[in-house]
Design a protein that fits this description.
There is one protein chain. With 120 residues, this protein is of the alpha+beta class. The protein has one domain: HIT-like (HIT family, subunit A, 2-Layer Sandwich). Helices cover 29% and strands 21% of the residues. It is globular, with a radius of gyration of 14 Å. The structure holds adenosine monophosphate.
């Protein structure tokens, strides 16, 4: 999949549309999901143009990779999600249910999150 520079997260990174920012650093941006599925629901994204985790692990620098993992941890810390436990999740491609084609890691917390996958 080629990177679409007009995807919604690319537009947020360029400042073309707003987000409810939690924090940012040189390599990452963390912001609250617009349709939260838990009391804490934050998205952590790399600033680089990576479609998915596959693209990221193949092409990102070690510094970008370390920054993304540390940002996920920081998002859990800042939101209080670490109290009681939390979940990180990345949807990848069609089977994964990925809607926005810019790598994003969901951080959920603040309640019992239930089973990892919907039963069915
Ligand atoms: P995924 O299905 O893993 O691609 O998740 C995409 C997520 O992006 C969903 O949880 C959406 O609610 C969220 N989302 C879409 N547009 C925005 C936006 N403008 N600001 C914040 N979150 C968004």
């Amino acid at each position: 999949m080629t990177y679409d520079p007009n995807n919604i997260f690319a537009r947020i990174l360029r400042g073309e549309i707003p987000c409810n920012k939690l924090f940012e650093d040189d390599h990452t941006l963390a912001f609250h999901d617009i349709h939260p599925q838990a009391p804490v629901h934050v998205l952590v994204i790399p600033k680089g143009a990576y479609v998915s985790m596959e693209d990221f692990t193949a092409h990102a620098s070690d510094a970008e990779m370390a920054a993304l993992l540390r940002a996920v941890d920081k998002a859990a810390e800042m939101t209080g999600a670490k109290t009681g436990g939390w979940r990180m999740l990345a949807n990848i491609g069609a089977n994964g249910g990925q809607e926005v084609p810019h790598l994003h890691i969901h951080v959920f917390g603040g309640k019992r999150l239930g089973p990892m996958l919907a039963k069915g």
